[in-house]
Amino acid sequence: MTNSSLKITRNEGNSNIPTAFIFSCPGQEELKSGKLVNGQTGKNLDMMLTFLNKKKPDLFPSVNRYDYRITNSSECVHYKAYDNRTEPKTAEINEPDNLSRLADDISGYRCVITFGRCAALAAKAVVDSGLCKDTAFLYSQHLSFLSLNSSIKKDIDGNDILRGAADSTSKRLEVAAQKILDQIDF
What we know:
The chain is of the alpha/beta class. The protein has a single domain, classed as Uracil-DNA Glycosylase, subunit E (3-Layer(aba) Sandwich), CATH 3.40.470. The chain is 41% helix and 10% strand. It has 8 helices and 4 strands; from the N terminus they run βααβαααβαβαα. Strands 2-1-3-4 form a 4-stranded parallel β-sheet, with helices on both faces. Helix 2 packs across helix 8 and helix 5 (96-106) packs across helix 6. The longest helix is centred in the first third of the chain and has 17 residues, at 39-55. The protein starts with 18 loop residues before the first strand and ends with a helix.
């Protein structure tokens, strides 16, 4: 069985919410549940949404990730034990059918947030192809512990975040949320 035979499509979300999310690809947790952004990354997204909702409820009216349209830079499932990868290849992202699917997934949304390098690459390819117009794209790092812990060392007030402290993930997600908010100029 090739990875192209294992696919998980988008989360529909609530059509009244003007914001959609792009992540990299489904992994093992998503394959088990059949839901996108499952596991710890999903929990981190929900926590981040609490910060975004407080500051910008018009774009983030819910703190539940499944109220939003969620899609991926590729629908193909990747995880280490399956195909020794956790991200799609650039060629997989840039396939015309994939870009058309992605453009359809995010069409009509006022704001689309990309999480991670592959999601940003996919969004850029959709924009460059002219498939998606009148959408503001905001960029965030991936919400995995590895990404958060390695790139965010200081809290929102500039204080060091102690690795392993009970509130360290929350503090990192608050910083990541603020970085998204800082990009809003519409």
